[in-house]
Amino acid sequence: MAHTFLLEIGLEEMPAHVVTPAIKQLVKRTADYLKEQRVDYTDIKPFSTPRRLAIQISGLADKQEDISESVKGPAKKIAQDADGNWTKAAIGFTRGQGLTPDDITFKEIKGTEYVYVDKFIAGEPVAAVLAGLKDVITAMTFPTMMKWSTHHFEYVRPIRWIVALLDADVIPFSILDVTTGRNTRGHRFLGTDVDVATAADYEADLTAQFVIADADKRKALIKQQIEKIAADHSWTVNIDAGLLEEVNNLVEWPTAFEGSFDEKYLTIPEEVLITSMRDHQRFFYARDASGKLLPNFISVRNGNDHDLQNVVAGNEKVLTARLEDAMFFYTEDQKKTIADYVERLKSVSFHDKISTMAEKMARVTAIVSVLAKHFDLNDAQTKAALRASEIYKFDLVTGMVGEFAELQGVMGEKYALLQGEDPAVAQAVREHYEPISADGALPESVPGAVLALADKFDSILTFFAAGMIPSGSNDPYALRRQATGIVRIARDQKWSLPVAELAIDFIAAEDTANVAPKLDQASQIDAMVTFIKDRIRKILRSAKQRHDIIDAVTAGSSSDVLQIFTAADILASHAADDNFKAVIESLTRVIRLAQKAPAELADATVDAKLFENDSEGALDKGVAEVVAAAGKGLDALYASLADIQPTIAAYFEATMVMDKNDAVRNNRLTELSHLATLALTLGDLDQLVVK
């Protein structure tokens, strides 16, 4: 007989962002538990609201599957002594299986007899198994945890009730002072407590108490209500998926309503209005058919339409207060110049172990000058990037950003334009924060991309030099995100970005401009390169690149971000070539032998007079061809390395590299070192798995 089981964890209101991940976690943990316990079922249906996490399991089997298996033990010669008595090995084996030596039989495998026992374990009734879900509940983890009362147990919010019903029967267990039952709670204001008769009645019983427990149904209803209001007024409403998810996890019985604000606030930049409505009040904003922002919004209450006019008035009052503040700050901010704000940054700390914000901008200006030259920017791009670097943090000390921190950069662009800055400068001021998340939008302009790189490089170098390197999950200054930004920008712009070499130039430029921090940045260059390569690794893994190729390209000699990605693409594109194995094995042998070259040979030249066979001359000619090809890019480099593979093979066939004669040996090692240096540009090829 198939059964239906209901588990509901009743809680104090959870933060909206926790609800969806939490119910997904409960479903997965339950599915894993049932699989481990050998219990068959048809489906697990999730339910979630701000006050509950629930699952309804349908098609549950009566009991666990029985286990009937033949278990292999030690060899007979180990299980019995010379007199045929059971040894400790045999006794221990059977005890571990819950049996005795009397249950042993022997089976022959490839001429050797082994101990076997036939083991049968009857499945437990499903009711007994389901009681173990207590451990599933208590094992759950959340981004924020709390204790309550005198308990030491931590959970996302205090547990107030638990429903556990197998069909019509309560499955008994307790968590702290809460014991399972059949009583659930309806809407906090509209509903009452209700006893659920059977697990199958759960959703209907809650609906009667003004709780739509199915999150998907609740979300669809919210969307439908918003679309109706918009259609009634001929509005265009962007139903942002993230906002819809958040609102859905704040309500149990949704009722959408419309509100408005005074048109005078439309003189404020719309980003401020949208931030006030969407981010602060969780309102959906409206536009007309032409795309113009309207003085209207749509919100969702957790309740019915009773006295809805009071709810509308309350929401309008709260929004108006925020917009009044915004209007004040917008007006007051324009009374000062950008120069005034930049001057104030001299007393604003970037970090107390590093510098002020003004000093950071001075360093970034020096870095921008290096990058502008490296990327060969034109005069207009260079001028815009440098001017932006001199002012780009000024909006941090404006009243608007003080009130709406999420608008930093956005207000910088607005105010820069109002004060007559070049649009390219204003755009770079806004774009320097991008990307603001691992997969966020990237700067679209060249000055913006350069400024974003410079700002992120300065942050990573200075924080590393100050000893604040991220470890484990600890990254309070978002340096991993900034490193990912560097990688993504370089790749997006198709810019060569040799991190190690550029970092040296950055530090030198800061010294020349007398703006270097009192920190040892040079000692952290290698650590920074490794840190950025770790971000490259993560991006390549997410792109499903082969692990050995990732290991090879990130372990190579190059610190050029774009070159590393290109090398990965090239190796992946040639991995199926008929000669790939031979090429990689030959180059790997070259690299390994080159590692034996004394350090003083690093700048040595090859002396053809010391060649003792034709293969040495042929390889020297081949290396020259590879050098020429390397200047045309990594594609040409790999093709040239592949072309000389037969030459390398012939060389090793005819030549003993480690000759007894020092001069001959060193000459050969020098020749191989030159070739190895070229090959390592692609990566540490020894990491590649070739078959």
A few lines on this structure:
This protein has 691 residues and is α+β, with helices and mostly antiparallel strands. It has 27 helices and 18 strands.
Layout of secondary structure:
Blueprint: E1 3-11, H1 16-36, E2 43-49, E3 52-60, E4 67-75, H2 76-79, H3 88-96, E5 104-109, E6 112-121, H4 126-130, H5 133-138, E7 159-166, E8 169-170, E9 174-175, E10 178-179, E11 183-185, E12 193-195, H6 202-207, H7 215-233, E13 236-237, H8 241-248, E14 254-260, H9 270-280, E15 284-287, E16 293-302, H10 308-333, H11 338-344, E17 349-351, E18 355-356, H12 357-374, H13 379-391, H14 399-403, H15 410-418, H16 423-431, H17 446-465, H18 479-493, H19 499-512, H20 525-542, H21 547-555, H22 561-574, H23 580-594, H24 614-630, H25 634-643, H26 645-654, H27 662-680
Antiparallel strand pairs: 1-3, 1-7, 2-3, 4-6, 5-6, 7-8, 9-10, 11-12, 13-15, 14-16, 15-16, 17-18
Keywords: Aminoacyl-tRNA synthetase, ATP-binding, Cytoplasm, Ligase, Nucleotide-binding, Protein biosynthesis
Family: Belongs to the class-II aminoacyl-tRNA synthetase family.
GO molecular function, one term: glycine-tRNA ligase activity
Commentary on this structure:
The chain is α+β, with helices and mostly antiparallel strands and 691 residues long. It contains 27 helices and 18 strands. The protein has a five-stranded antiparallel β-sheet, covered by helices on one side. Strands 13-15-16-14 form a four-stranded antiparallel β-sheet, with helices on both faces. Strands 4-6-5 form a three-stranded antiparallel β-sheet. α9 crosses α10 (308-333) and α19 crosses α20 (525-542). The two termini are 53 Å apart. The relative contact order is 0.05. The mean pLDDT is 94. It is found in: Cytoplasm. Pfam families: tRNA_synt_2f. Tetramer of two alpha and two beta subunits. Belongs to the class-II aminoacyl-tRNA synthetase family. It catalyses: tRNA(Gly) + glycine + ATP = glycyl-tRNA(Gly) + AMP + diphosphate.
